[in-house]
Amino acid sequence: MANPVKFLTRTRGNGSGGLHWTDWLSYFYLFCGVLLMFLPVIWLGFSSFKTEADLLRFPPRLLPMAQETVMVDGYDEPLPLYRIKGGEHEGKTLAQIRRVGIIAQMVDPDAPDERLKVNIKEREPIESFRLATENYTELFEKFNFGRYLWNSVFITATATIIMLIVNSMAAFALSKYQFKGRTVVLALVIGTLMIPQTVVLVPLFMISRELYLTDSLWGVIIPGAATPTGVFLLRQYMLTIPDEILDAARMDKASEWKIFWRIILPLSAPAIAVLAILAIMWRWNDFLWPLIVLSDSDNFTLQLALNAFQGDLNTQWSNLLAMTMLVLLPIAIVFAFLQKYIATGIASTGGK
Amino acid sequence: MLAVLNPLMRLIEVPMKWMQDTLGLKNPAWLFLLPNLILFGLFAFLPVIINFVYSLTGSDGILLANRPYVGASNFDYLLDCGSYVDPNSCRDDFFWRAVHNTILFVILQVGLMVGFSLLTALILNRKIRARGFFRSVFFFPVLLSPVVVALIWKWILQREGVLNAWLEAIGLESFNWLLDPSWAFGWSVFLSIWAHMGFYTLILLAGLQAIPRDVYEAAMMDRASPWRVFRRITLPLLMPTMLVVLVLALIKGVQTFDEIFAFTGGGPGSATTFIIQYIYNTGFAGTPRLFGLASAASIMLAVVLVILTFLQLWANRKNVDG
Questions:
Q1: What PANTHER family does the entry give (chain A) (predicted)?
Q2: Among A305, A283, A285, which residue's Cα sits nearest to residue A294?
Q3: How many Cα atoms within 13 Å fall on the side-chain side of residue A269?
Q4: How confident is the model over A3-29, as a mean pLDDT?
Q5: Would you put residue B67 in left (φ > 0), alpha (ψ -120 to 50) or beta?
Q6: CB contact under 8 A, A255 and B302
Q7: What is the tally of structural domains in chain A?
């Protein structure tokens, strides 16, 4: 370890040699990639903890800073603190009562009886690092955030469970039974691959309306409950389960349904887990169909609420950014723990 | 979760067992298929048929009974163009602007994205430290919701955003990016690549790792140059995966809507309005709701998608077990 640079830069395989110039280029590319992919999210995180005043500052600063305030006898509200850097009060720390034109009325917190007049150019705000957590708490107090969160969680959970049950039943039938028309059904399932939601929006809306599903959470849950991807993923996995296990169970007079949920489902757990993760992600991030089927803002999911917020001119960036963070967070946490499964799941199904 | 599901499963078992025992149903396959087939029928196949009916009828009624038959006039309206190259010469210029935007967007986005994904996958396939970490970094944005992606970049690109601050710091002019049609379009392409390239990188990386090692070892024996190895071994053997990636990216690119809608709302003007947003605006956002036009546009989109899906199945045919 005489040469630390050499130690850090040596590659697997050829332990003695240093890095080839193409290796340096590769690491440089990857490093740029890390910056490009992560920095925007980190910047969002920092920004979401800034006060509205700090957010409007240009050029922006990295860390959330807020002006210090002090309670002064005789005033109900806390007053902002300034350091005076010129004029007759130079060097003092004063609190501002109000500002009239270019003159600020100020008061010394230690001698609150006397009002001082200071030119605004001679004062400088005293700021310190502070996380504006009120951006987040206000979401629950003023913006009905809890409601949207509940809608999203309810839709995601219910839709995932229904989808897993319905799709695994179909996959079971298609993998473990011989019957007339199996090829036809398989062809039909492949056929639905060719009908993405985006090309049947109008009739889908009409059918949902006739079934009294519009403007209800069930209208988001039911139409997407059967997916060709899910059926295929589960079927391919169930094909690998030996039929002898089923025959043994039938000897013991287990009903077909019991075979399904006591034997096949537990044995398909890995595939079901992958599908569950995918379903949760699809539902949590779903946008176009909820946008069409839900119209009352009480039924909005987090995604819809976030989109409606950003279009609303009364919305402040501080709350909007905090809400973005909260929508992002569950996915980030799931990703941190399950990224291996997500990656394999997505690679094996080819997305949606 | 099992605590909830177990009683439910027991409950379903009662009628299922009854049908099996009493009705003597030896092969309950259709029972298991039923819920799935009902859902597919109601929400996939039936809509396709109704879509045609909608496209051939007029008025703004949602019920088919309230919709008079108008023949192919919806299609005529959409296709009535002096020249298909110039949207201004079309009766429905908004539709043709959306079509033009979508075509340009797909060419730029798919081309650049597959290029960068391939480059990233090739680099990740080298002997790299912390490969897992780098792989997940590129993959991370894939999981973000479209609205979150849009807001992250809106916050960076806004008039007083961090990008403008940085430009001014190095002595350049700041710029209102999303109010300029060309820049808004360019940033839409960028945002879409940023959000999705990790997915394609992942598939290409899997394809690269499936290439057998001994082929490379043989090439090394022959002292083939790295460029030659790439041209003659990596690229041809990766071709099937490349094809799948390309078609998949095309299918998704044509249907781009969510993140761009949240990012620019289709604007400024109609600079970032794509075909799905045309359908959404015509059928659901505007008044009167022109369901017929929206359906007609959907059918034209469907034709493109069906062709692309056949391409996908063809490219993917080795992986699909019939």
A1: ABC TRANSPORTER PERMEASE PROTEIN MG189-RELATED-RELATED (PTHR43744), SN-GLYCEROL-3-PHOSPHATE TRANSPORT SYSTEM PERMEASE PROTEIN UGPE (PTHR43744:SF8)
A2: A305
A3: 5
A4: 67
A5: beta
A6: no
A7: 2
Domain extent for A176 = 143-349
Q: Which of A67-81, A100-114, A333-347, B152-166 has the highest mean pLDDT?
A: B152-166
The DSSP output letter for B318 is T
- Please tell me whether residue A87 adopts helix, strand or coil conformation: coil
**Per-chain mean pLDDT for chain A:** 82
Please report whether residue B28 resides in a domain.
no
Q: What is the CATH number of the domain that holds B233?
A: 1.10.3720.10
- DSSP secondary structure code for residue B267 in this structure: -
Same domain for A88 and A162? no
Residue A40: its chain B contacts at CB < 8 A? 152-153, 156
Beta bridge partners of B69: B57
Please tell me whether residues A328 and A292 are part of one structural domain: yes
pLDDT of residue B113: 96
The end-to-end CA distance of chain B, in Å, is 34
Read off the pLDDT of residues B285-296 as tens digits, 9 standing for 90 and up.
877 888 888 899
Tokens 């798919």 belong to which residue? B110
Q: Which residues pair with A127 in a beta bridge?
A: A67
Containing structural domain, residue B138: 47-315
Distance from CA of A214 to the nearest CA of B (A): 13
Dist. CA B312–CA B241, nearest whole Å = 11
Same domain for A80 and A161 = no
Q: Are residues A159 and A92 in the same domain?
A: no
Q: What is the CATH number of the domain that holds A175?
A: 1.10.3720.10
- Within-domain flag for A333: yes
Alpha-helical segments (H) within B174-272 = 181-209, 213-221, 226-229, 235-254, 258-264
Say which CATH number the domain at A82 has.
Answer: 2.30.30
Task: Tell the residue number behind the tokens 């039936």, with chain if given.
Answer: B46
pLDDT in tens, B28-79: 788 888 899 999 999 988 999 988 888 888 777 777 777 778 878 888 888 8
Note whether A117 and A148 are same-domain residues.
no
pLDDT at A65 over 90: no
Q: Which residue of B has its CA nearest to A250?
A: B26
Say if residue A121 is in the same domain as residue A168. Answer: no
How would you class B165 by CB atoms within 10 Å of its CB: exposed for 0-12, middle for 13-18, buried for 19 or more? middle
| B257-292 residues labelled b (16+ CB within 10 A) or e (exposed) | bbbbbbbbbbebebbbbbbbbbbbbbbbeeeebbbb
- Domain count along chain B: 1
* Contact A153/B at CB under 8 A: no
> CB B294 to CB A331 under 8 A?
no
* A27 inside domain: no
Residue A204's closest CA among A303, A297, A290? A290
Mean model confidence pLDDT for chain B? 86
**Is A86 inside a domain boundary?**
yes
A289-300: per-residue pLDDT in tens?
999 999 888 899
Same domain, A314 and A189: yes
Tokens 């096949």 sit on residue: A264
- Domain membership of residue B99 (yes or no) is yes
**Exposure class string for A288-324: b at 16+ Cβ within 10 A, else e:** bbbbbbbeeeebbbbbbbbbebbeeeeebbbbbbbbb
Identify whether residues A105 and A202 lie together within a single domain.
no
SS3 state at A95: strand
Alpha carbon dihedral A117, A123, A129, A135, in 10-degree steps, equals 60
Contacts A303 to B, Cβ<8 Å: 145-147
| Nearest residue of chain B to residue A237 (CA atoms) | B321
With tokens 């394999």, the residue in question is A344
Rg, Å, chain B Cα set: 25
